[in-house]
Design a protein that fits this description.
By secondary structure, this protein is an alpha+beta fold. It has 34 helices and 35 strands. The protein is elongated, with a radius of gyration of 48 Å.
Length: about 950
Amino acid sequence: MNRREKTKTDASTEARDRRSGASHSGQYKWADIITAIGSPTIILDTNNRLLVANRATIELTGKSLAQLVGKHCYEVFHSPGSQHPRAGCPMQRLLTGEEAPAGEMELEVYGKVFLVSCTPIYDDQGEIEYIIHIATDISEHKRVESELGRQNRYLSQLNEFAIELANLSLETKTEEFIAKALYRMSGARAVTVSVYDQNERALFIRHVETDSSIINKVTRVLGTRIENIPSRLTDASYQEIITEVTGVRKSLTEVTFGEISPLVGNAVSRLIKADHYVGIAYLMNNRLYGTSVLAMPKDIPDPPPEVLKSFSHLATLALHRKIAADALAVSEDKYRLLIDTMSEGVVVVDNDDVVQFINPACCKIYGYQPADVTGKVGYEMLIHPDDWNTIKYKNASRLSGHADTYEVRGVKATGEQIWLRISGAPVRDKKGVVTGSVGIMSDITQNMKFEDELRRQNAFLDGLIEGAAEAIVILDKDENVIRINTEFTRIFEYTPKEALGKKINDLIVPPELRAEGESATADVAEGKRVHFESVRHSKKGKRIDVSILGNPIKLEGDQIGVVSIYRDISEKVHLERQLRQSQRLESIGQLAGGVAHDFNNMLTVILGYGEELLQAFEPGSHRWYEVSEIIKAGQRAMNLTSQLLAFSRRQLIRPQVLNLNAVIHDMKEMIQRLIGEDIGLETVLADDLGDARCDMGQIEQVLLNLVVNARDAMPNGGKIRIETSNFTLDRDYASQHISVQPGEFVLLGVSDTGIGMDEETLSNIFEPFYTTKDKSTSSGLGLPTVYGIVKQAGGTIWVYSEPGTGSHFKILLPRTFDGAAADDQPPVRHFKHGKGEHILVVEDDVALRNLIMKVIQKLGYTVTVVANGAEAVEAVSVQGLKPDLVITDVVMPGMNGKELAEQLRIHYPELKVLFMSGYTDDIIARRGVLEPDIPFLQKPFSRDQVAEKIQRILHSSNSEQQ
């Protein structure tokens, strides 16, 4: 276990212990609930050890609770002595970090099959603390599932048999075909198919399906081929077959009606390893067509009787079709000439719907040859499957002598669908008995196309309306709702029953926008198309930002209604508001940064000359006091400009890797003194908190500003909570919020129990100089400063507050996995005067330039001053000036400070340069972040700061300077 995992485990243990103590009074209630669960239920720790087992588990395992607790779950349930969990264990997937909140697996144990669920319980840090296993007995379900699988296999084979029968040609040996199919399906050792000869009143075996070696052995035992042994039927035995249930088990003697003796029958049974025999009768209308006998082995279950009955029915149709085809062939010549010359299609089917004849006209309609259709079930070949029941019903009605005309869909050989008008009539034999049906067909496809196209268009319209991502409502010409789609119900919460017949403006238009809604419906009523964005409300009063499109519906030039489409644009409006807020703050920041830059130059002059003037008076004198007040006012103004630069993200910083917990710990005592005794302070700091790269001073300023803001919101006392944690932002969240990037972050939260803020205050809290406090005590720059610092650090700040509920500030700073940098060198405390070193000062502000020259000269240095970069280059490259140090403003007209340094180092590569500025346009920094090795002097600055910077640079090595 590495250090991080151990930390998470310790945290989880502490959280569990706390909850355990806090909920001790309720643990017996939970124990009773777990014990009462009827299925075996256990609770495990993350090491697979059993902590709790209910009564059902004890009864299942036969072990006491003491014997179970502490055991690994796989030792008890997978197999005794197991050293590892079984492959596929969902608990292991959870513990290895796979994103699955729960899982299941099947487990066969203690003679039963269980479905084991695996549900994680998380601690306060989001780590898995316990796992709950509930084992549901699914043994009966598995048995039923197995039986259903067997039934499905039979049904599948029956379906294949039916399909093959439908395509069976008249040349196929029907009895052999039936025997082979039954042999495959039943698993029998041998299958026979017999046909009934009415003249001989006997059953004759026409085919035996089994291994050829078995046939030879049976022939030797019987002394003749089995096909040579007829089964004579008396009236009683014939009736027995007619009335007997298919699938009854019998001996070989019984199924041959005594033609084979019991002694021989037993010998044959042992030879073919048959345990018993199952008989099938092929019957239709109480007429016997034949039988089959299945020799079943002991270890193969008999096919279900229902399956055998279905097979019998299909096989009987095949046998009957063969007989009927032979009979119809005799009389075919009598009507073929007449039928062949008709322009309408003619199809003749028997009473089983098997095609006996099809004329040339019908073949032309369908694109078949006569051989393609004859002998097949007519409606399966020629009629659309959705109309098969109609054909079967109509043909069945022929048995009663009915003739009628109807319309159905046909399917051509190419798969093309056509419409048919069929005049059907019964076909009778010489005795008047109905033997089939004749259908005279006309192709009416062209007549149906228009109606079909209308139905198609309606279907498309229905699909378009119901599948649309927008809410759609259709109004009649009186503006009454006549239809809404599913999305309308989802957005506005009205069901079709609630909306139909209502005025749309009465349903969803807010009262204050009633005039707007009526104007829009009036415009559409006049034939205009309207498109605008507005707000509508749902049945429950929820306000929804929507894009509205209204369009008139016309029929042959007359307007018959209106279609209105509503798109929910709440998310779009929310993002636009975020963007506008971000752009507004950015614009204000640019203005504030520019003002601070110019003001810093003036403050530098004011403070510089103020310090010089202060030295001219005796400490404590009236003039000394007045000048001190000027300096104090300048320093207060300097703080304001610093805050403005922080808000505009133009303050130059030197970030370092730091841990927020350490910052909070170091400031905790100061914060407590700051908020006073009537406000409680609570800190909840994550033990495994990651690091962030920030400017230490700025983070301290953020924390102090938030604490002061919280303190001022609680004039009567309260509580402040400071918390830290690791935080992950996913792509879905980032896509819904402006200026937020997904990734790993460190969270700093400051919450209070104060008066809270309303929506208007929340929308302005980050704007400079906006404040709800007394303007004599607040500059209105506290929270804008926080905003600028967080943004400059690449972070995000969220605020949630409502009146009376306090305020909650959440700051996310990008997490860094770099090691902490070494501390900077300690500042120089004892300044030494220069020894005449030559310093070149480049500053475009004349007052500031003169001040800097005066201060540096008093420090013992030789000074040359110029107004811009071009003058500096000329002094060095033309006049031959060789300064020991160049002090240059960063932002200047023409050549900026960085470009100047690069030009001068062409002649003097080891030249040392000190940059100074009130802010930067990323000339020597990236987003206000200075590289550690760039010497920089922040305006406004004091005499001591100038002295320290010059002394440090002049005594640094060249590699450190560059």
